[in-house]
Automatic annotation (TrEMBL):
Coiled coil start-end: none
Protein known as: Chromosome partitioning protein
Gene3D superfamilies listed in its UniProt record: P-loop containing nucleotide triphosphate hydrolases
SUPFAM superfamilies for this protein: P-loop containing nucleoside triphosphate hydrolases
Domain spans labelled AAA: 1-175
InterPro entries in alphabetical order: AAA_dom, DNA_Partitioning_ATPase, P-loop_NTPase
Pfam families assigned: AAA_31
Length: 269
């Protein structure tokens, strides 16, 4: 089972939007996928149009009030399920995070999911706090969204340093799949400068080819409480970006060997 940690050193970069749409794209690619919400604010549930903390989830599993299989939310795609954060009182967020990061709690929950899913997408809270660190310790791969603005670029080293430290001290199998540029605006000079810096200054392969633009379609999808692919009968063209991203990431997670490439297939027969 592949555990993909979606984490960023900065909030407001589109982490939950990417987690939600990417999870559905993985499912469409034939992967049994779970989107697991670790953010106590409940951003995944809110993005799906649910009332604030409307359904039980991770918090109830941790307290023993609910069994894990009973709180997995099924979706219209049979390959995709969602585990919401649950009913976390805003006044007890600190206690929830402390409980989640205590010992092997998170890794134990993930262990119960093995055999049931091919990919688990962990939607982390903003920043590099204890929850994100624990997710990295339990994960197999990392995807970090980077907002196309100078402050995010200047702080990118923070998440890269954390990934390196976790890999060195706790989880030697952790792999950085790449950095994905989000909220890119080609009409803004600063946004273009950030993109150029990423492409020219960072080692090849770290910066993913897929770019998530700043687009009002994302706001409309949130308003409708649906991922892009399901917001209307004819999905907006923007939804194809996540199919492309899912394909790219799956190729990186399970790269094909030379033996698997059997050469070109003739067009004419």
């Amino acid at each position: 089972m592949h555990i993909l940690v979606v984490a960023s050193q900065k909030g407001g970069v589109g982490k939950t939007t990417i987690s939600l749409n990417l999870g559905l794209a993985f499912a469409r690619a034939g992967q049994r996928t779970l989107i697991m919400e670790l953010d106590a604010q409940g951003s995944v549930g809110l993005s799906l149009g649910l009332a604030d903390r409307a359904r039980p989830g991770l918090a109830e599993v941790m307290t023993g009030a609910e069994a894990l299989p009973d709180v997995l939310q099924r979706t219209r795609d049979p390959q995709l399920q969602v585990l919401l954060v649950g009913r976390v009182d805003p006044a007890t967020v600190g206690g929830f995070e402390e409980a989640l990061t205590r010992g092997p709690v998170l890794s134990g929950i993930l262990g119960q999911l093995r055999g049931e899913f091919d990919v688990v997408v962990l939607d982390c809270p903003a920043g590099l706090g204890r929850v994100t660190t624990r997710a990295l310790e339990a994960g197999t791969h990392v995807l970090t969204p980077l907002q196309a603005e100078p402050l995010a670029l200047r702080s990118l080293g923070q998440i890269l340093a954390l990934v390196d430290r976790v890999r060195a001290e706790k989880n030697t199998s952790l792999t950085l799949l790449g950095v994905i540029l989000s909220m890119f605006d080609r009409q803004t000079p600063a946004s273009l400068e950030v993109a150029e810096t990423l492409w020219t200054k960072f080692p090849g392969g770290i910066i993913l080819d897929t770019i998530i633009p700043r687009d009002e379609t994302f706001l409309e999808a949130s308003l409708r409480g649906a991922p892009l692919l399901l917001m209307q009968k004819r999905p907006p063209p923007l939804s194809r970006l996540f199919d492309q991203l899912a394909t790219d990431l799956l190729d990186r997670i399970e790269p094909k060997t030379a033996e698997e490439d059997d050469g070109p297939i003739p067009l004419l027969v």
